[in-house]
Write a structure and sequence with these properties.
The chain is α/β, with parallel strands linked by helices and 341 residues long. The chain folds into 2 domains: 146 residues, NAD(P)-binding Rossmann-like Domain (Rossmann fold, 3-Layer(aba) Sandwich), CATH 3.40.50; 169 residues, 2-Layer Sandwich (Dihydrodipicolinate Reductase, domain 2), CATH 3.30.360.10. Helix content is 35%, strand content 24%. Strand 9 and strand 10 form a beta hairpin. Helix 4 runs parallel beside helix 5 and helix 5 runs antiparallel to helix 11. The two termini are 35 Å apart. The structure holds 1,4-dihydronicotinamide adenine dinucleotide (NAI) and (2R,3S,4s,5R,6S)-2,3,4,5,6-pentahydroxycyclohexanone. (2R,3S,4s,5R,6S)-2,3,4,5,6-pentahydroxycyclohexanone binds next to helix 7. InterPro entries: Gfo-Idh-MocA_inositol_DH, Gfo/Idh/MocA-like_OxRdtase_C, Gfo/Idh/MocA-like_OxRdtase_N, MI/DCI_dehydrogenase, NAD(P)-bd_dom_sf.
Protein backbone atom coordinates (compact mmCIF):
# COMPACT_ATOMS: atom_id res chain seq x y z
CA UNK A 1 0.00 0.00 0.00
CA UNK A 2 3.09 2.18 0.48
CA UNK A 3 3.10 4.23 -2.71
CA UNK A 4 -0.63 4.34 -3.23
CA UNK A 5 -2.40 7.69 -2.82
CA UNK A 6 -4.56 7.33 0.32
CA UNK A 7 -7.95 8.95 -0.36
CA UNK A 8 -10.59 10.09 2.13
CA UNK A 9 -14.03 9.89 0.50
CA UNK A 10 -16.60 12.26 2.03
CA UNK A 11 -20.16 11.10 1.39
CA UNK A 12 -21.02 7.45 0.71
CA UNK A 13 -24.26 7.89 -1.23
CA UNK A 14 -24.75 7.17 -4.94
CA UNK A 15 -21.64 8.97 -6.19
CA UNK A 16 -19.48 8.35 -3.14
CA UNK A 17 -20.11 4.59 -3.20
CA UNK A 18 -19.43 4.50 -6.94
CA UNK A 19 -16.17 6.43 -6.52
CA UNK A 20 -15.12 4.09 -3.67
CA UNK A 21 -15.67 1.10 -6.01
CA UNK A 22 -13.74 2.94 -8.75
CA UNK A 23 -10.80 3.80 -6.48
CA UNK A 24 -10.68 0.22 -5.22
CA UNK A 25 -11.24 -1.70 -8.45
CA UNK A 26 -10.69 0.49 -11.53
CA UNK A 27 -8.20 3.24 -10.89
CA UNK A 28 -4.51 2.48 -10.41
CA UNK A 29 -2.26 4.22 -7.91
CA UNK A 30 -4.81 4.93 -5.17
CA UNK A 31 -6.57 3.29 -2.27
CA UNK A 32 -9.47 4.29 -0.02
CA UNK A 33 -7.95 5.23 3.34
CA UNK A 34 -11.01 6.77 5.06
CA UNK A 35 -14.69 7.35 4.47
CA UNK A 36 -17.05 9.78 6.19
CA UNK A 37 -20.82 9.95 6.15
CA UNK A 38 -23.19 11.09 8.91
CA UNK A 39 -24.99 7.83 8.13
CA UNK A 40 -22.40 5.41 9.56
CA UNK A 41 -24.22 2.32 8.26
CA UNK A 42 -24.05 3.69 4.73
CA UNK A 43 -20.33 4.45 5.09
CA UNK A 44 -19.64 0.98 6.47
CA UNK A 45 -21.63 -0.69 3.68
CA UNK A 46 -19.71 1.27 1.03
CA UNK A 47 -16.32 0.03 2.28
CA UNK A 48 -17.37 -3.50 3.29
CA UNK A 49 -14.56 -5.88 2.40
CA UNK A 50 -11.90 -3.17 1.97
CA UNK A 51 -8.84 -3.38 4.23
CA UNK A 52 -7.19 -0.46 6.02
CA UNK A 53 -10.11 1.98 5.85
CA UNK A 54 -11.29 4.03 8.83
CA UNK A 55 -14.98 5.00 9.02
CA UNK A 56 -16.12 8.39 10.36
CA UNK A 57 -19.33 10.34 10.82
CA UNK A 58 -17.42 13.65 10.96
CA UNK A 59 -15.91 14.59 7.57
CA UNK A 60 -13.12 16.68 9.10
CA UNK A 61 -12.01 13.74 11.25
CA UNK A 62 -11.63 11.70 8.05
CA UNK A 63 -9.16 14.25 6.65
CA UNK A 64 -6.90 13.67 9.67
CA UNK A 65 -7.16 9.87 9.57
CA UNK A 66 -4.01 7.74 9.13
CA UNK A 67 -2.76 7.45 5.54
CA UNK A 68 -4.94 10.22 4.07
CA UNK A 69 -3.10 12.22 1.39
CA UNK A 70 -6.03 13.36 -0.80
CA UNK A 71 -9.78 13.98 -0.55
CA UNK A 72 -12.70 13.09 -2.81
CA UNK A 73 -15.81 15.11 -1.89
CA UNK A 74 -19.09 13.40 -2.77
CA UNK A 75 -21.34 14.86 -0.09
CA UNK A 76 -24.36 17.05 -1.06
CA UNK A 77 -23.45 20.43 -2.63
CA UNK A 78 -24.21 22.57 0.47
CA UNK A 79 -21.55 20.60 2.45
CA UNK A 80 -18.78 21.18 -0.13
CA UNK A 81 -17.53 24.61 1.00
CA UNK A 82 -16.64 23.46 4.52
CA UNK A 83 -14.97 20.31 3.19
CA UNK A 84 -12.98 22.22 0.55
CA UNK A 85 -11.73 24.80 3.04
CA UNK A 86 -10.72 22.07 5.51
CA UNK A 87 -8.82 20.23 2.74
CA UNK A 88 -7.12 23.50 1.69
CA UNK A 89 -6.00 24.16 5.28
CA UNK A 90 -4.28 20.78 5.21
CA UNK A 91 -2.92 21.39 1.65
CA UNK A 92 -4.56 18.15 0.49
CA UNK A 93 -5.36 17.69 -3.23
CA UNK A 94 -9.12 17.47 -3.74
CA UNK A 95 -11.53 16.12 -6.31
CA UNK A 96 -14.88 17.82 -5.56
CA UNK A 97 -18.12 16.69 -7.15
CA UNK A 98 -20.21 19.32 -8.89
CA UNK A 99 -21.74 21.70 -8.00
CA UNK A 100 -18.49 22.92 -6.39
CA UNK A 101 -20.55 25.15 -4.05
CA UNK A 102 -24.16 25.86 -5.04
CA UNK A 103 -24.20 29.54 -3.98
CA UNK A 104 -21.92 32.09 -5.62
CA UNK A 105 -20.84 33.79 -2.35
CA UNK A 106 -19.62 30.46 -0.97
CA UNK A 107 -17.99 29.61 -4.30
CA UNK A 108 -16.12 32.93 -4.24
CA UNK A 109 -14.86 32.19 -0.72
CA UNK A 110 -13.37 28.96 -2.10
CA UNK A 111 -11.75 30.86 -5.01
CA UNK A 112 -10.27 33.37 -2.56
CA UNK A 113 -8.99 30.66 -0.21
CA UNK A 114 -7.20 28.79 -3.01
CA UNK A 115 -5.87 32.01 -4.54
CA UNK A 116 -4.40 32.97 -1.14
CA UNK A 117 -2.50 29.68 -1.12
CA UNK A 118 -1.29 30.62 -4.60
CA UNK A 119 -1.54 27.26 -6.31
CA UNK A 120 -4.27 24.87 -7.35
CA UNK A 121 -5.44 22.19 -4.93
CA UNK A 122 -8.87 21.26 -6.31
CA UNK A 123 -10.21 19.61 -9.45
CA UNK A 124 -13.98 20.00 -9.92
CA UNK A 125 -16.07 17.00 -11.01
CA UNK A 126 -17.25 18.19 -14.41
CA UNK A 127 -16.70 14.72 -15.86
CA UNK A 128 -18.03 15.50 -19.33
CA UNK A 129 -14.62 16.98 -20.12
CA UNK A 130 -13.32 13.39 -19.84
CA UNK A 131 -16.03 11.83 -22.05
CA UNK A 132 -14.69 10.60 -25.41
CA UNK A 133 -17.53 12.18 -27.42
CA UNK A 134 -17.21 15.58 -25.73
CA UNK A 135 -13.44 15.44 -26.26
CA UNK A 136 -13.92 14.76 -29.99
CA UNK A 137 -16.33 17.68 -30.27
CA UNK A 138 -13.94 19.97 -28.39
CA UNK A 139 -11.02 18.93 -30.67
CA UNK A 140 -13.17 19.54 -33.77
CA UNK A 141 -14.27 23.00 -32.64
CA UNK A 142 -10.72 23.95 -31.57
CA UNK A 143 -9.38 22.69 -34.93
CA UNK A 144 -11.46 25.37 -36.65
CA UNK A 145 -12.54 23.35 -39.72
CA UNK A 146 -16.23 24.10 -39.03
CA UNK A 147 -15.61 27.80 -38.54
CA UNK A 148 -16.96 29.93 -35.72
CA UNK A 149 -19.52 28.25 -33.44
CA UNK A 150 -22.87 30.06 -33.57
CA UNK A 151 -25.09 27.91 -31.37
CA UNK A 152 -25.09 24.87 -29.10
CA UNK A 153 -28.33 22.91 -28.82
CA UNK A 154 -28.25 20.72 -25.72
CA UNK A 155 -30.57 18.09 -24.28
CA UNK A 156 -30.31 16.82 -20.69
CA UNK A 157 -32.90 14.23 -19.66
CA UNK A 158 -33.02 12.07 -16.54
CA UNK A 159 -35.48 9.20 -16.02
CA UNK A 160 -36.53 10.61 -12.64
CA UNK A 161 -35.32 13.09 -10.07
CA UNK A 162 -34.24 12.06 -6.54
CA UNK A 163 -36.37 12.95 -3.49
CA UNK A 164 -35.97 16.59 -2.50
CA UNK A 165 -34.97 17.76 -5.99
CA UNK A 166 -36.14 21.38 -6.44
CA UNK A 167 -36.93 23.52 -9.48
CA UNK A 168 -33.69 25.47 -8.84
CA UNK A 169 -31.71 22.21 -8.89
CA UNK A 170 -32.68 21.57 -12.51
CA UNK A 171 -30.40 24.54 -13.16
CA UNK A 172 -27.77 24.50 -10.40
CA UNK A 173 -27.33 20.72 -10.28
CA UNK A 174 -28.34 19.31 -13.69
CA UNK A 175 -27.65 22.22 -16.07
CA UNK A 176 -24.40 22.99 -14.21
CA UNK A 177 -22.92 20.32 -16.52
CA UNK A 178 -24.06 22.19 -19.65
CA UNK A 179 -22.84 25.48 -18.18
CA UNK A 180 -19.36 24.02 -17.79
CA UNK A 181 -19.43 22.13 -21.09
CA UNK A 182 -20.50 25.27 -23.00
CA UNK A 183 -17.77 27.43 -21.40
CA UNK A 184 -15.20 24.72 -22.17
CA UNK A 185 -16.34 23.90 -25.71
CA UNK A 186 -16.70 27.53 -26.77
CA UNK A 187 -13.86 29.01 -24.71
CA UNK A 188 -16.18 31.82 -23.64
CA UNK A 189 -17.88 32.99 -20.47
CA UNK A 190 -21.69 32.91 -20.37
CA UNK A 191 -23.10 36.39 -19.85
CA UNK A 192 -26.90 36.17 -19.55
CA UNK A 193 -29.66 33.61 -18.96
CA UNK A 194 -33.35 33.34 -19.79
CA UNK A 195 -35.51 30.40 -18.67
CA UNK A 196 -38.80 29.39 -20.27
CA UNK A 197 -41.19 26.93 -18.67
CA UNK A 198 -43.31 24.62 -20.78
CA UNK A 199 -46.42 23.33 -18.98
CA UNK A 200 -44.97 20.86 -16.42
CA UNK A 201 -45.01 17.17 -17.26
CA UNK A 202 -47.64 15.08 -15.49
CA UNK A 203 -44.72 12.76 -14.66
CA UNK A 204 -43.00 15.42 -12.54
CA UNK A 205 -43.56 15.56 -8.75
CA UNK A 206 -46.20 18.11 -7.67
CA UNK A 207 -44.76 21.64 -7.73
CA UNK A 208 -41.56 20.82 -9.66
CA UNK A 209 -41.05 23.00 -12.74
CA UNK A 210 -39.98 20.23 -15.09
CA UNK A 211 -39.08 20.47 -17.96
CA UNK A 212 -37.36 23.84 -18.39
CA UNK A 213 -35.84 25.50 -21.45
CA UNK A 214 -32.71 27.47 -20.58
CA UNK A 215 -31.09 29.93 -22.98
CA UNK A 216 -27.59 31.30 -22.40
CA UNK A 217 -25.84 34.17 -24.18
CA UNK A 218 -22.05 34.21 -24.40
CA UNK A 219 -19.44 36.96 -24.40
CA UNK A 220 -18.80 36.67 -28.16
CA UNK A 221 -22.42 36.37 -29.24
CA UNK A 222 -23.05 32.61 -29.42
CA UNK A 223 -26.30 31.16 -28.04
CA UNK A 224 -26.63 27.96 -26.00
CA UNK A 225 -30.02 26.36 -25.42
CA UNK A 226 -30.66 23.50 -23.00
CA UNK A 227 -33.79 21.39 -22.69
CA UNK A 228 -33.58 20.00 -19.17
CA UNK A 229 -36.18 17.37 -18.26
CA UNK A 230 -35.39 15.39 -15.12
CA UNK A 231 -38.52 13.21 -14.95
CA UNK A 232 -38.82 12.19 -18.59
CA UNK A 233 -39.39 8.56 -17.59
CA UNK A 234 -37.81 7.00 -20.67
CA UNK A 235 -34.04 7.28 -20.47
CA UNK A 236 -30.89 9.20 -19.63
CA UNK A 237 -30.16 11.32 -22.68
CA UNK A 238 -27.43 13.92 -22.94
CA UNK A 239 -26.89 15.42 -26.38
CA UNK A 240 -25.10 18.42 -27.78
CA UNK A 241 -25.11 19.80 -31.30
CA UNK A 242 -22.72 22.57 -32.27
CA UNK A 243 -23.85 24.69 -35.21
CA UNK A 244 -20.96 26.58 -36.80
CA UNK A 245 -20.51 28.86 -39.81
CA UNK A 246 -19.28 26.00 -42.02
CA UNK A 247 -20.99 22.91 -40.59
CA UNK A 248 -22.49 21.24 -37.56
CA UNK A 249 -21.50 18.37 -35.27
CA UNK A 250 -23.66 16.37 -32.87
CA UNK A 251 -22.78 14.03 -30.01
CA UNK A 252 -24.86 11.93 -27.65
CA UNK A 253 -27.08 9.99 -30.05
CA UNK A 254 -27.65 6.55 -28.60
CA UNK A 255 -24.70 4.32 -29.39
CA UNK A 256 -25.38 1.14 -27.44
CA UNK A 257 -26.39 -2.26 -28.77
CA UNK A 258 -29.10 -2.50 -31.45
CA UNK A 259 -31.24 -5.63 -31.13
CA UNK A 260 -33.28 -6.74 -34.15
CA UNK A 261 -36.06 -9.27 -33.50
CA UNK A 262 -39.65 -9.96 -34.51
CA UNK A 263 -39.56 -7.44 -37.36
CA UNK A 264 -38.27 -4.50 -35.33
CA UNK A 265 -34.93 -3.01 -34.32
CA UNK A 266 -34.56 -1.93 -30.71
CA UNK A 267 -31.80 0.32 -29.39
CA UNK A 268 -30.97 0.35 -25.72
CA UNK A 269 -31.04 3.69 -23.92
CA UNK A 270 -28.91 4.23 -20.80
CA UNK A 271 -31.04 4.76 -17.70
CA UNK A 272 -28.63 6.87 -15.68
CA UNK A 273 -25.41 8.85 -15.62
CA UNK A 274 -23.46 6.06 -13.90
CA UNK A 275 -23.90 4.03 -17.09
CA UNK A 276 -23.71 6.77 -19.74
CA UNK A 277 -20.65 8.46 -18.24
CA UNK A 278 -18.95 5.39 -16.65
CA UNK A 279 -15.82 5.77 -18.78
CA UNK A 280 -15.70 9.53 -18.19
CA UNK A 281 -15.80 9.10 -14.39
CA UNK A 282 -13.04 6.47 -14.64
CA UNK A 283 -10.82 8.78 -16.69
CA UNK A 284 -11.62 11.79 -14.48
CA UNK A 285 -10.60 10.00 -11.27
CA UNK A 286 -7.54 8.39 -12.88
CA UNK A 287 -6.37 11.79 -14.15
CA UNK A 288 -6.82 13.25 -10.66
CA UNK A 289 -4.89 10.41 -8.98
CA UNK A 290 -2.07 10.54 -11.55
CA UNK A 291 -1.72 14.31 -11.17
CA UNK A 292 -1.82 14.15 -7.36
CA UNK A 293 0.93 11.53 -7.34
CA UNK A 294 3.04 13.89 -9.47
CA UNK A 295 2.26 16.72 -7.04
CA UNK A 296 0.00 18.48 -9.58
CA UNK A 297 -3.67 19.34 -9.99
CA UNK A 298 -5.22 19.43 -13.48
CA UNK A 299 -8.69 19.52 -15.09
CA UNK A 300 -11.65 21.80 -14.32
CA UNK A 301 -10.59 24.28 -11.65
CA UNK A 302 -12.14 26.26 -8.83
CA UNK A 303 -12.74 29.20 -11.19
CA UNK A 304 -14.81 26.88 -13.40
CA UNK A 305 -16.78 25.85 -10.30
CA UNK A 306 -17.27 29.50 -9.33
CA UNK A 307 -18.32 30.58 -12.84
CA UNK A 308 -20.83 27.72 -12.96
CA UNK A 309 -22.28 28.82 -9.60
CA UNK A 310 -22.70 32.45 -10.73
CA UNK A 311 -24.28 31.47 -14.05
CA UNK A 312 -26.58 28.97 -12.34
CA UNK A 313 -27.62 31.58 -9.77
CA UNK A 314 -28.51 33.95 -12.62
CA UNK A 315 -30.49 31.08 -14.14
CA UNK A 316 -32.44 30.55 -10.92
CA UNK A 317 -33.20 34.31 -10.83
CA UNK A 318 -34.36 34.16 -14.44
CA UNK A 319 -36.58 31.19 -13.61
CA UNK A 320 -38.27 33.02 -10.75
CA UNK A 321 -38.73 36.38 -12.51
CA UNK A 322 -39.46 35.09 -16.01
CA UNK A 323 -37.01 37.70 -17.30
CA UNK A 324 -33.41 37.81 -18.54
CA UNK A 325 -30.73 37.73 -15.82
CA UNK A 326 -27.16 38.88 -16.41
CA UNK A 327 -24.02 37.19 -15.10
CA UNK A 328 -21.58 39.25 -13.03
CA UNK A 329 -18.27 37.49 -12.35
CA UNK A 330 -15.69 38.75 -9.83
CA UNK A 331 -12.19 39.53 -11.17
CA UNK A 332 -10.38 36.30 -12.03
CA UNK A 333 -7.22 35.66 -9.94
CA UNK A 334 -4.07 34.95 -11.99
CA UNK A 335 -3.83 31.41 -10.67
CA UNK A 336 -6.74 30.45 -12.94
CA UNK A 337 -6.75 30.08 -16.73
CA UNK A 338 -9.49 31.44 -19.00
CA UNK A 339 -12.64 29.49 -19.91
CA UNK A 340 -12.13 26.58 -22.27
CA UNK A 341 -8.38 26.06 -22.22
N1 LIG B 1 -20.89 14.15 -11.68
C1 LIG B 1 -22.10 13.64 -11.74
O1 LIG B 1 -22.58 13.26 -12.79
C2 LIG B 1 -22.91 13.51 -10.51
C3 LIG B 1 -22.58 14.25 -9.41
N2 LIG B 1 -23.36 14.19 -8.30
C4 LIG B 1 -22.96 15.03 -7.17
O2 LIG B 1 -22.39 14.19 -6.18
C5 LIG B 1 -22.71 14.71 -4.87
C6 LIG B 1 -23.43 13.61 -4.09
O3 LIG B 1 -24.60 13.25 -4.79
P1 LIG B 1 -25.29 11.82 -4.54
O4 LIG B 1 -24.27 10.80 -4.26
O5 LIG B 1 -26.23 11.62 -5.67
O6 LIG B 1 -26.11 12.12 -3.21
P2 LIG B 1 -26.66 11.07 -2.14
O7 LIG B 1 -27.76 11.76 -1.43
O8 LIG B 1 -26.90 9.75 -2.77
O9 LIG B 1 -25.43 10.89 -1.14
C7 LIG B 1 -24.90 11.91 -0.35
C8 LIG B 1 -24.30 11.28 0.89
O10 LIG B 1 -23.60 12.30 1.60
C9 LIG B 1 -23.88 12.15 2.98
N3 LIG B 1 -23.61 13.41 3.64
C10 LIG B 1 -24.47 14.42 3.99
N4 LIG B 1 -23.80 15.43 4.54
C11 LIG B 1 -22.49 15.07 4.56
C12 LIG B 1 -21.30 15.70 5.01
N5 LIG B 1 -21.31 16.93 5.54
N6 LIG B 1 -20.13 15.06 4.86
C13 LIG B 1 -20.08 13.82 4.32
N7 LIG B 1 -21.18 13.17 3.87
C14 LIG B 1 -22.36 13.79 3.98
C15 LIG B 1 -25.32 11.66 3.03
O11 LIG B 1 -25.61 11.03 4.26
C16 LIG B 1 -25.35 10.72 1.84
O12 LIG B 1 -24.97 9.41 2.19
C17 LIG B 1 -23.54 15.97 -5.11
O13 LIG B 1 -22.69 17.07 -5.13
C18 LIG B 1 -24.12 15.75 -6.51
O14 LIG B 1 -24.42 16.93 -7.20
C19 LIG B 1 -24.45 13.38 -8.21
C20 LIG B 1 -24.81 12.62 -9.28
C21 LIG B 1 -24.07 12.60 -10.53
O1 LIG C 1 -24.81 15.39 -11.85
C1 LIG C 1 -25.82 14.77 -12.00
C2 LIG C 1 -26.93 14.80 -11.03
O2 LIG C 1 -26.55 15.45 -9.84
C3 LIG C 1 -28.07 15.58 -11.67
O3 LIG C 1 -29.18 15.58 -10.81
C4 LIG C 1 -28.45 14.93 -13.00
O4 LIG C 1 -29.44 15.69 -13.63
C5 LIG C 1 -27.23 14.82 -13.91
O5 LIG C 1 -27.62 14.17 -15.11
C6 LIG C 1 -26.12 14.07 -13.25
O6 LIG C 1 -25.00 13.99 -14.10
Amino acid sequence: MGDLLGVAVLGAGHMGADHIRRLDQVVSGARVAAVADPDRDRAEAAVAGLAGVTVHTDPVAALDAPGVAAVLIASPGPAHEEALLAAFERRLPVLCEKPMVPDSAGALRVVEAEARIGRRLAQIGFMRRYDAEYQRLKALLDGGSLGRPLMLHCTHRNVSSPAGFTSAMLINSSVSHEIDAARWLLGQELTAVTVLRPAPSAGAPEGLIDPQFVLFETERGALVDVEVFVNCGFGYQVRCEAVCEAGSARIGDEHTMVVTARGAAREEVAQDYLVRFADAYDREVQAWVDAARRGEVTGPDVWDGYAAAVVAEAGVRALSTGGRATVDLAPRPDVYATAGR
